[in-house]
Amino acid sequence: MADHNALPLVILAEKFASLPGIGMKSAQRLAYHVMSMDMHSVEEFSQALLDAKRNVRCCAHCQNLTEREICPICSDESRDHKIICVVESPKDVTAFERTREYNGVYHVLHGLLSPMDNITPDKLRIRELLARLSAGGIEEVIMATNPTVEGDATALYVANLLKPLGVNVSRLAFGLPVGGMLEYADEVTLFKALENRNFM
Amino acid sequence: MADHNALPLVILAEKFASLPGIGMKSAQRLAYHVMSMDMHSVEEFSQALLDAKRNVRCCAHCQNLTEREICPICSDESRDHKIICVVESPKDVTAFERTREYNGVYHVLHGLLSPMDNITPDKLRIRELLARLSAGGIEEVIMATNPTVEGDATALYVANLLKPLGVNVSRLAFGLPVGGMLEYADEVTLFKALENRNFM
What we know:
2 copies of one chain form a homodimer. By secondary structure, chain A is an alpha/beta fold. Chain A is 42% helix and 12% strand. In chain A, helix 6 links the parallel strand 5 and strand 6. In chain A, helix 1 crosses helix 2. The longest helix of chain A is centred in the N-terminal third of the chain and has 17 residues. Chain A is globular and about 65 Å long. The first copy, chain A, starts with 6 loop residues before the first helix and ends in a 5-residue tail after the last helix. The interface between A and B is large, with 56 and 56 residues.
């Protein structure tokens, strides 16, 4: 925004533009939108930013984001605490919870191994996962990282650390997405679907 | 976001989702991003929202957004105050300023006439434009609203109000965009380009 623009607007647009997926053009549009909101809504938005950052932390068990010391999933006694689903980020927990089919608990790594970006095992919450396993009582760990190079590498790395502890380690199944069309499936997905076929 | 998510995060995501062009999925991603920002940056963002809303107002002359009573363009004596370019929103002022060719002043309507959305002439800053003209000294008013149904209707409506005041009213030229390709131009644009052709 050129210098004829009001400085507070330029600063606000820069803040929006610093968020992922928001370019300078959209950021400017958002800043103008804030001007058209009433004062009360802007104050609420401003406070929501502070509240989220100040009051949300990682669950002492699963490392998912929560307001409490132990998150609602880890404190839920009706869930199966013998199965841990290992995911990359809190978003993935939300995705699994939406299925309403998974009744175990989670462990959020907060990232995937990526030596190129200097994300080494000590940057992830792997130590905390090992600590949960040493405490005993875990029967299965499901590696539910994305089917990407980093996701597969992380799953393999963690699995190799866990197997010597005598726990069952599994990986999510890969195949055709439900409702997907054969002709649009890429070769690797189709090969995985063929390889992991189930007898009827 | 399901109820296993921390409440402050759900609230923050809802605030982001209330902004134009941001869906619930992106809003959730942005809320998680805020968690990964350092406390200082979040406080700055929070403050920027308040500052923009509290310290920015409409220029008493042109109605553009500014921190001062009179905006830098209206207070610039080197500009030609006899020509007023009428635009829909502050964004359009930025667009004209980028050309570095326009040396007149502006008038921001803050919207376009749209009876369907209940945006009637009294909702726009038309009264303020008429007041500037009554003060005298204006030679030309350029109607620079978008070439859309609402933009054209607003230009026509305002032009009809201004003409009896003995001021020249002009409209932006429509034609092929510079660098554009004939084959991709729509019929109406091509017709306008033909109609408004210039002899060489």
